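Would you mind writing out the residues of a protein together with its fold in token form for me to study?
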Amino acid sequence: MFSFARIEYLLLLVLLIPAALLFFFNQKWKKKTIKKLGDENLVNQLTSGHSSKKFSAKFWLIFFALALTALGAANLRMPGKAENINRKGRDIIIAMDVSKSMLADDIKPTRLEKAKQFVSKIIDALPNDRIGLIWFAGKAYLPMPLTADEGAAKMFVQSANPDDIPTQGTVIGEALQLAAQSFPNESKRYKIVVLITDGEDHDENAVENAQRLKEQGILLLTVGLGTEEGSTITEPGTTEFKKDKLGQTVISRLNETLLKKMATANGGMYGNLQNIDAMVNDVSAVINQLEKKSSETNGAPTSFVNFFIWFLAAALLLLIIELFISEQRKMKV
């Protein structure tokens, strides 16, 4: 079944509509202008060296080249041949939100402290797996790549705080991209990302990146912290509440809808971190279930046949043809 990998690029085709309309209006304007200048035959003789047909041909060649480029960027593809892959072991990357909104205390003692407790217990519950850590706020970075050193992982977790990332925000999409890049390319181990966040800022790329993880064979488990009612955020080192640009006190709320959409898009799971032990059991159960499945994944496409190169090649051919077309009319001898 055919599909587009980056369907958003098809919107570029909409931009070609005003270009086509502008061309038609320009052609009409030229005809009207010629009539207004006086003797139409005389004007045609004076412009006999210019071919309006060749001008139109050049325009449409460029027009369709741009359309093919947009289709190429969207990357039409179809599932490739299914392969059987033997999987052994699990690699787990924990992406934890360390933005200032995680300092909200609607979850006691704070969202961030509860997240740390949860991560430490998850590490204990999965002693035979490799663990990697990602912190994110307005940026995402990898403080610890995949390792079997549980002690080092816990040390990094306990030291995490909003000051680690000066740029504030919640770039969930960037964190997922970094997680995908942090897995070894040729590894046959199961790949899991555990995302821990309040999801406060709506990241337009988050759901799309969750879907991409699925395409790469990476399972996404989303864990939400916070409440619908939300809470104020105390600025670190002060007793003052965080305020927005208008001077209004900021109320941080859990964006549960976004996290559920991400889990659905990936085929993973979502859970609200109200009870640490219960969530540890739920997450570890999902991860442990991977090993209980067949050691071979049968009938699942592991790659795609991409057709973008054909669209881009056709676009390049049209542009080359356009270069060799002159707007000058061949003069009869």
About this structure: Residues 294-301 have pLDDT under 50 and may be disordered.
